[in-house]
Amino acid sequence: xxxxxxxxxxxxxSNIVKxxxxxxxxxxxxxxxxxDALVQRxxxxxxxxxxxxxxxILNMADLEQAVSNRNVTKIVHAAVFTGxxxxxxxxxxxxxxxxxxxxxxxxxxxxRGLPIERFLYVSSxxxxxxxxxxxxxxxxxxxxxxxxxxxxxxYASELLTRRYGELHNFxxxxxxxxxxxxxxxxxxxxxxxxxxxxxxxxxxxxxxxxRVGDRTLGRDYTYVADTAAGICTVLDAGSLSHxxxxxxxxxxxxxxxxxxxxxxxxxxxxxxxxxxKEFEILRPNSARGLLDVxxxxxxxxxxxxxxxADGIREYLEWxxxxxxxx
Length: 326
Hints:
Blueprint: E1 2-6, H1 11-22, E2 26-31, H2 37-43, E3 50-54, H3 60-67, E4 72-77, H4 86-91, H5 93-112, E5 118-124, H6 149-168, E6 172-177, E7 179-181, H7 196-205, E8 210-212, E9 218-219, E10 221-223, H8 224-236, E11 244-247, E12 253-254, H9 255-265, E13 271-273, H10 294-300, H11 308-321
């Protein structure tokens, strides 16, 4: 039996692949691009359990070839065009819709012909919408207000995933992720906006000053190893009571907290206050609250393993061990 992971060489996808392989899964790692040297090294310890397959989720022949004679019984659909920057959203509107919606429909059509034990769609906390109070706990059953093409296509794919499962009788579930950070975050053709932690850990390993603006802005940042572990917990659960679960460390982290933790881990880091410093993902009108993790914690017993300082420490160690200074 094998698990197909789409977007398997990307940021979250590569961590899902690695975690599944650690847990004993045979993994088919499907992506538009073949694994580069960084990906190959990241999978190196578990290479005998990971089969890379290059292909396009918009091409059914590629998908059918990926599962041919591989006894795929689970699918994690993580491939996505994270086109959240306004200029990208404007210039590539149709590509975002095609990749994020048609791609999902193709994977669901593929699942119809397989002995699927579970189809898991990797969604996003962005479906809750922007401009909400940061004091509002975002549990899975509240009304959603997706506005961007990215958020809208993620929610559309959640709906498609649930209905396909109902119509064609295979188990489906969606997971909504908070803001991940950690190893394998990097600029790709379908991911252009990096997290504050990506930028600042890069500054640290390059021996540069860290520039910080409004320290009160924040997100429910989650170390990506915890993100992947939560996804795999949902995927491998014997039974599920719901069709969507939030995956998050469940903690609100301000940029000031990140700076404090970074200086705790690396006291030599120099921090400069720069009122003009901003991050695209943390625009004032993009605020949202904390993803409520009661459901995944109480039903499945999942809790995060990394606090902020531990996550930053491991992230820096990975950057240095892999000579990743971008």
